[in-house]
Amino acid sequence: MRLPSGIITPTVTPLRDGDLDGEGIAELLEFLRRTGVVAAFPAGSLGLFHLLSLSEHKRLISEFASRLPSGMALLPGVHRGNLEDTVDVARHARDVGAAAVVAVPPFYYELGQEEIADYYVELASAADIPVIIYNIPQMARNRIDPETAASVLSRTPMLAGVKDSSRDLAALQGYVSALPGIPVYEGQDDLLLAARALGAHGGVCGTSNFVDLPQRVWSAGADDAPALQGRLSRLMRLLSRYEFPSAYYYLFQAIVMGRRNPTGYMPRPMRPLDGRSAEALLLDFRSIVPG
């Protein structure tokens, strides 16, 4: 299969009073459809996959699948603490209609590149669904070299793409060069325009949960793109002032759901923004993105 070009949203996990919010998922997907997002990526880093039980993980994917707008691809994260559970979630995603699945490498312990390549080949073979490699060494501990991704491709036709969130543009360019014909996506919003110039297929942009700036950067011409990227980078600097990912979750609630004072929107042990911080965030957000 060929993955779409453009902006993919690594979705927040909508919660209300601590429970999965079906209305929130529906509103989020409608917002993404309306703003031109090409694919939804639930259960990633922004989706706080590591806080989901196995059953919650599957339920989240099912909830997104049942509400997915026509023409939008579903690319759920399936990463778990062991290969068996990861395969289990990937098979579930396949069965509910996912176009491909996204997986970080085995995390916590440091592994060699051959072990990482074996992991992806085994996952793709056992789950029988295309797999997107997710390179995020600052969180997963293990990096995935471009040569390792090329090795995976040489051993299985099920490598669908790469998401690179390493903040290393040389690595992204390495993936583009090592994997001709395989889509490579930039995972950092503030590097989107630079990645486009290096041949990226699109971006996986967390801010697209509540604003269309990434889509506008991606589709803009040479005259307009730098200024739009500048605004997106300002937004990223604003978000970085708050504990990740509470600001993303609050802005989704405030902008998309219209809930200025939401409750239970962050899973334990994470804390929501206090009232003063939320008010300041929204004010600063509106100075960048008037509405």
From TrEMBL:
Alphabetically ordered keywords of this record: Lyase, Schiff base
An example Gene Ontology biological process: small molecule metabolic process
Gene3D superfamilies: Aldolase class I
Keyword Metal-binding: no
Catalytic residues, chain numbering: 134 (proton donor/acceptor), 163 (schiff-base intermediate with substrate)
GO MF term set: 2-dehydro-3-deoxy-phosphogluconate aldolase activity; 4-hydroxy-tetrahydrodipicolinate synthase activity
SMART domains, per the entry: DHDPS
Residues binding pyruvate: 204
InterPro entries: Aldolase_TIM, DapA-like, Schiff_base-form_aldolases_AS
CDD domains the record matches: DHDPS-like
Protein name, per record: Dihydrodipicolinate synthase family
Organism: Conexivisphaera calida
